[in-house]
Write a structure and sequence with these properties.
The structure is a homodimer of 497-residue chains. Chain A has 497 residues and is of the alpha/beta class. Chain A contains 16 helices and 15 strands.
């Protein structure tokens, strides 16, 4: 099987072949460390986390480089507002970003370079661009001259006119052309500045990614990733800088993830339509957020709503409940296993279909992921296998057979294996379910002891055939979101979602 | 001022001059991810964290590379014992390591390469060594031939005989010389293996550090760090591999931290003389551990005991108490500041000495750190400045003067600035003190309300001149580790350390 991925540069799916043996160099644009990370950051992080996990799972040796922009207009302005230094501000938000990624189960990059740690690399790259005639200095600034680079606009598939419209360029008398962009910015009083051949100043935003990707992955590398919003101007500028400086192709595959909207609208702080990762994880399990983020193909737009994330949380709870039940039944000592002694029992026809679903999971999962990392389809196959396991669990309770148990066991293994690629189902089901139970208990107004007391009173009322009293207790509990389930073994209770 | 550091290679202190401009490339040997990190790991981590922070503070642009060994005999054996895959085991302990470092406030390396992510680099380096005649294959293994590298032993200053004695070498018929070491190990059944020109196998331990340091820092780089125990054979082997392959010098400065002992004896799991980072941080604040680890010069041996760490905890509490008091007094609105209106008041002579102590802190701190990162001396200067602040705080209470407040304020700033280099005093004093109070309260047998009730009862007894009753209450509280402090403003209480 060949892995195919959509290359934004060619606007089509292409066979993936790394430049060198089975090694893959991937650069993903990281954060500008000036504020808490939001849902959009979470999507990009989880999408590229899964892409990289899948490449590794498929046997590629991946070097993942992801930068931290720790000097930038946004940082300077925010630091000034808060009355702290740029360094303090960027270090604080880098730490918060790390904690968010840890919560989300996103693996660390192999290389996490910070812009301020690579000023020398950046200056040398700008010097090359100036000496080759692609860049010019003006009053302590250095600009890239887009007219000197005819391929400018090839990634974003835009004409110069469209680009100008899109970029809302202010006319700057220092620039030769309105689309020219800053490689180096002259220092202003009170701003951090480094010595350079053009006087004290600081790097523009785009140049750091060229300098740091070349340094750690070489002049030409395999994959460059980031959100769709980075195609223009950021990645367009990176290509111009890098190709102009090295004379070599820059990136072989550009991979971009789609936008996130909230309740059908663009995320916007000023409209109050905005969610940080921390806000979401306050109410939901990190894997519920991952499940949500992976439920659509990474290039499609993704709409977030409370209803959708709640649905994913319920779905995750069910998955863990199934895995927990499956593990319990397959881990039971042979004597206590249902069906352990019932070899040769003929299985109902639905069992065969269930076994087939389970058996095909890994093959189908690879097919889906090989097709441009189609996690939506891959998750569909996971749910099919879970349905199969549930069917077999039901059958095992009624008509036990070793074949069922074996299929359940291999289903659980397969789900956990593909779960490693998706960053899902990583917790022991028992631990997960206990934690969720505790969380839910915290939300109901009755202590557990009172619930069991009420259930006992209801039991007594029912024995005395005092149906009114029994029903009153049921209603009281329902009012506290406690749902009773009567069975021949007794009454159990659940918390209503 | 010139930064001087002790180079294990030359066995003397040398002026530090980076290879290229003000950029410093530093490679520090990381963990083998097969178990929880212990006190020895904490020392190396904190020592190099402070060295790197200081280099950055001094304006160097530092690239810090630190590897994770995620394939190794120890990992294979432990994974087998635990019945998990090597990947699961190493990922688990890598995660635990990351959490320990986060707790200790150790900054992340810029590049954190894992061995299994660089098998191609490793294979190419071994191929070079084989083709240059420095290495030979034998039944799927590849060994480095130490006889071909006459400089072998130069770092550890050992003769071949001493090395052989130190290494307790088993005689291996495949080796040309007993000191030859494995670059590539033939795969055994059930062990992870990668394809190679010598058949399936896995890299030896030493070669990964040569391959990954060359890849990320170049063939020659500035500083290589690690614990003393790595000098031989690990760093000796790294030098041999790298110099033989590239024909260039490998590392300009080798920096090694000293051993840690516990109660005067070698740490050893089998003797029960062993502490993990988590165990220590269960009882003490991470900064107390940093304070302990930095209290001796990094090259000296360091002995750990409960008494010593408790002492550092008490010392840290006092520092925060001083900082808190100082911040409170300097942050008070001008009208409420003692001495705000008392300009021109002549200060007692001890105030001048105190001001001088504070004024010199930064200069003395840089002097100490420039002298081979002498954190012990640097901390001495911090304590001197704190003494100065305490003196001025006392004076401010009695004979207020604006000069005192200014000196206190600049003392706090200087201590916080040098604290950033040492990774100390990073918490707001109010937050720190509140947290410590809560922790201590958890350890005393009386609830806070009962303590204040008892203090009120004692007050009443004293008013009635019932000294026996008052004293009984004092004794009762002392029995619960509550110490009373009577002052004209009333009675306060403290928890005895």
């Amino acid at each position: 099987m060949t892995l195919r991925l959509y290359n934004s540069f060619s606007s089509q799916k292409e066979d993936f072949k790394p430049l060198q043996d089975n090694h893959v160099g991937i650069y993903v644009c990281g954060i500008t460390a000036y504020d808490d990370c939001h849902l959009g950051h979470a999507r990009a992080a989880v999408v590229f986390d899964v892409i990289i996990r899948y490449l590794r799972h498929r046997g590629f040796e991946v070097t993942h480089v992801q930068n931290i922009t720790d000097i930038d207009d946004k940082i300077i302005n925010r630091a000034r507002e808060k009355g702290v230094s740029c360094k303090e501000l960027s270090e604080h938000y880098t730490g918060e970003f790390h904690r968010d990624m840890e919560s989300l189960g996103v693996a660390r990059p192999d290389v996490e370079p910070r812009a301020t740690g690579h000023i020398q690399n950046i200056i040398r790259l700008i010097e090359t661009l100036v000496s080759k005639g692609y860049a010019y200095a003006a009053e302590g600034n250095v600009f890239f001259s887009v007219e000197k680079f005819p391929a400018y606009g090839r990634l974003s598939h835009r004409s110069p006119e469209e680009m100008q419209a899109g970029a809302r360029v202010k006319i700057d008398p220092q620039k030769h052309h309105p689309m020219d962009f800053a490689l180096w910015k002259a220092g202003k009083p009170g701003e951090p500045a480094w010595e350079s051949p053009w006087g004290p100043g600081r790097p523009g935003w785009h140049i750091e990614c060229s300098a740091m990707s070349i340094r750690y992955l070489g002049e030409t590398f395999d994959i460059h990733g980031g959100g769709q919003d980075l195609i223009f101007p950021h990645h367009e500028n990176e290509i111009a800088q890098s190709v102009a400086a090295t004379g070599k192709p820059f990136v072989r595959y550009f991979v971009h993830n789609g936008f996130v909207t909230i309740n059908g609208e663009k995320m916007s702080k000023s409209l109050g339509n905005f969610l940080t990762i921390k806000e979401i994880l306050f109410g939901y399990h990190p894997e519920a957020l991952r499940l949500f983020l992976l439920s659509k193909h990474y290039r499609s737009p993704l709409d977030y709503s409370e209803d959708l994330i709640r649905e994913k949380q319920v779905s995750l709870d069910r998955i863990y409940a199934t895995l927990g039940e499956a593990l319990e039944i397959t881990a039971a000592p042979p004597g206590k296993r249902p069906g352990a002694s019932a070899t040769g029992v003929s299985l109902p026809p639905e069992a065969e279909a269930a076994c087939a679903r389970i058996k095909d999971l890994k093959k189908l999962f690879y097919q889906a992921m090989d097709d441009d990392f189609n996690t939506a389809q891959a998750l569909g196959h996971v749910f099919d296998a879970l349905k199969g396991i549930n069917t077999l669990l039901q059958i095992s309770k009624m008509e036990p057979a070793r074949a069922c148990l074996d299929a359940i066991g291999s289903g659980v293994s397969a789900i956990r294996e593909v779960g490693q690629v998706l960053g899902l189902f990583a917790t022991e089901p028992g631990v997960y379910l206990q934690k969720r139970r505790t969380e839910k208990l915290r939300k109901i107004p009755l202590p557990e002891k009172e619930i069991s007391d009420l259930i006992r009173q209801r039991e007594e009322a029912r024995i005395k055939k005092d149906w009114a009293a029994a029903d009153a207790i049921r209603k009281k509990l329902a009012g506290a979101n406690i749902i009773l389930k009567d069975s021949p073994q007794g009454t159990t209770w659940e918390i209503k979602e």
